[in-house]
Design a protein that fits this description.
This protein is mainly α and about 550 residues long. About 75% of the residues lie in helices and about 0% in strands. The protein has 24 helices and two strands. The longest helix is centred in the first third of the chain and has 44 residues.
Length: about 550
């Protein structure tokens, strides 16, 4: 009897320890999911229970204009980006023409140019004192603007062109991958039935690539809703600019939350439509042997026309803005050593770096915790945590700052009552709120990368580690991490780059007298001081080029 007691006693603590470890990862995953979803929930709560209800005033005054302009911008930019991205992807995958070997990669470069930087460059290039109109006046002998007609630069049309030039690579990347994965069998059947180049594109290539094109177009439209710098510079009133106006100018947080709720409803509707379209359109390769489509060589006039069609988006989306900004940067070399620029650079590196590290670590913890949990609730919350990427930065700013400020005041009062000293605002008065917004906004990148990386690790490896006595934490650090660190490094860089370019959330949540490169460039350009804005813009573009290089490497 005495010999049976020690095994029983030792077995019981092992079982209890297992439960505690299980609960730790499961509760940790739930806590991270709750933090990511909290700003979205807060926006809807404040919208339906505002301290000052101005729904009636918004509906009768500005809301219809905001919604109309936002929808026009979304649809126009989506259609134009889809046309450019799909057409360019079809040309570089189906044909061989002069320059195609490098054009297929240069078409990714516009992603490195934030849309608001492209807006500043376009206005500087085409305005009355810019090189285009100056050359026209010199050439034709015109004296004033009344002697000739020139299209209005700061307009809805210009905003559509700039946003499309900056965002069409989202469609191009996905469409190019979809066209490359298509089998030659479909092309051969269509050709044998007498279909020409247009017929093969319209009836075979396009329908099979439609899910990828729809996904890319949805990303473009969501980024269009998120944009603030471009529409503000072109004086186009959208729901995002309305949030800034109602909150900062009218000092009405409830009205800003109500506009934010409208934006979220538009985004949720857009995501739902995109997923529904993909569910209804499914295509499968029926052949067990996949033969890629052999590109057709285009010579003569048709070859040069194809090269020109791919060259124009690259010139307008990258060469023009980069050239204009670089010219100003070289003409204002003193601006590179301005203390304000150096402070903004340090602030950008600090908040972007901390946010990237925290976001990736949280994404790894969440995915690993959900895999260990085996419970339904964490698995159901996992896809919901990606909604932050679809939510515009201005919406997240509303959902984070208002509740955080209320919590911060209570915390400051509590600490003052205990210590007898005023500690100030620790959360909303520091970079904490900004880092939190970045984490929520770009959590989908880290979560998606971590989920895919964990899925590629054979389950036998962690099982073997557990059988050898390794804990869950040791299994993560000794087995999973060495195998997924390359993917996590890529996710870390992508999150950092997006943090550097993010403008709306930064403008709303930055502490007093705290500038990042994005806000510094926007503030200087808004004052028509593109010379002082150019060094910061060049730095942002160089960071973006690193991300584009990473994407190009991953899509080879």
């Amino acid at each position: 009897m005495e010999q049976t007691h020690p095994p029983a006693a030792s077995a019981k603590p092992e079982k209890r320890g297992f439960r505690l470890s299980f609960d730790f990862w499961s509760l940790g995953a739930l806590l991270i999911a709750a933090i990511v979803l909290a700003p979205i929930v807060a926006v809807f709560y404040m919208a339906f229970f505002p301290t000052e209800n101005i729904w009636g005033h918004l509906i009768s005054t500005t809301l219809p204009r905001y919604v109309r302009n936002t929808l026009i911008l979304m649809v126009s930019v989506g259609l134009l980006s889809a046309s450019i991205g799909t057409g360019a992807a079809w040309l570089v995958t189906r044909y061989r023409f002069p320059g195609v070997s490098w054009l297929q990669w240069t078409l990714l470069l516009p992603l490195s140019i934030p849309a608001y930087v492209g807006a500043y460059a376009l206005v500087d290039f085409l305005e009355y004192a810019g090189p285009v109109q100056t050359a026209m006046r010199d050439l034709f002998g015109w004296k004033t603007a009344r002697d000739y007609w020139f299209p209005e630069i700061r307009s809805m049309g210009a905003a559509i062109l700039v946003l499309s030039a900056a965002m069409f690579p989202y469609v191009y990347i996905l469409a190019r991958a979809a066209f490359r994965e298509q089998s030659a069998a479909g092309e051969e059947v269509a050709r044998s039935l007498g279909a020409g180049p247009w017929g093969r594109f319209w009836r075979v290539g396009l329908p099979m690539a439609r899910p990828a094109i729809a996904a890319g177009t949805a990303i473009v439209m969501m980024e269009t809703v998120n944009d603030f710098g471009t529409v503000d510079y072109f004086a186009v009133q959208t729901l995002t600019t309305g949030i800034f106006s109602v909150w900062l100018e009218s000092n009405n947080a409830g009205g800003a939350a109500q506009l934010s709720a409208v934006v979220l409803m538009l985004v949720i509707l857009l995501v739902s439509l995109e997923k529904t379209s993909r569910r209804k359109q499914q295509f499968f390769a029926l052949s067990t042997r996949h033969r890629p489509v052999k590109p057709v060589s285009l010579t003569g006039l048709w070859g040069w026309l194809a090269a020109l069609a791919c060259l124009l988006p690259f010139l307008f989306g990258f060469v023009l803005p980069f050239g204009v900004i670089l010219n100003h940067a070289l003409d204002n070399l003193d601006s590179w050593v301005e203390p304000s620029l150096l402070r903004a650079l340090w602030n950008t590196l600090f908040v972007g770096g901390v946010a990237a590290v925290v976001t990736v670590l949280a994404g790894v913890f969440l995915v690993y915790g959900v895999r260990l949990s085996g419970k339904a609730l964490p698995r159901q919350l996992l896809p919901l945590t990606t909604i932050g990427y679809a939510a515009p930065g201005a919406v997240l700013g509303v959902g984070i700052l208002i509740p955080l400020a209320a919590m911060d005041h209570r915390l400051a009062d509590f600490l003052e009552a205990i210590t007898g000293q005023s500690v100030g605002l620790l959360l909303s008065g520091t970079a904490f709120a900004l880092i939190l917004a970045y984490c929520v906004r770009f959590f989908a990148i880290a979560q998606g990368a971590a989920d895919g990386a964990f899925g590629r690790v054979s389950p036998n490896l962690p099982l073997a580690a557990r059988s050898l006595g390794r804990t869950r934490g040791q299994t993560l650090s000794e087995v999973y991490f060495p195998l997924i660190r390359t993917t996590l490094g890529s996710a870390l860089l992508l999150v950092f780059v997006d943090c550097v370019k993010e403008l709306p959330a930064t403008m709303l949540l930055r502490p007093f007298n705290f500038e990042t490169l994005a806000t510094l460039v926007h503030d200087q350009a808004s004052l028509e001081n593109l010379g002082d804005a150019s060094p910061g813009a060049i730095m942002i573009m160089l960071v973006g080029l690193v991300a584009v290089g990473l994407l190009a490497r991953a899509n080879r």
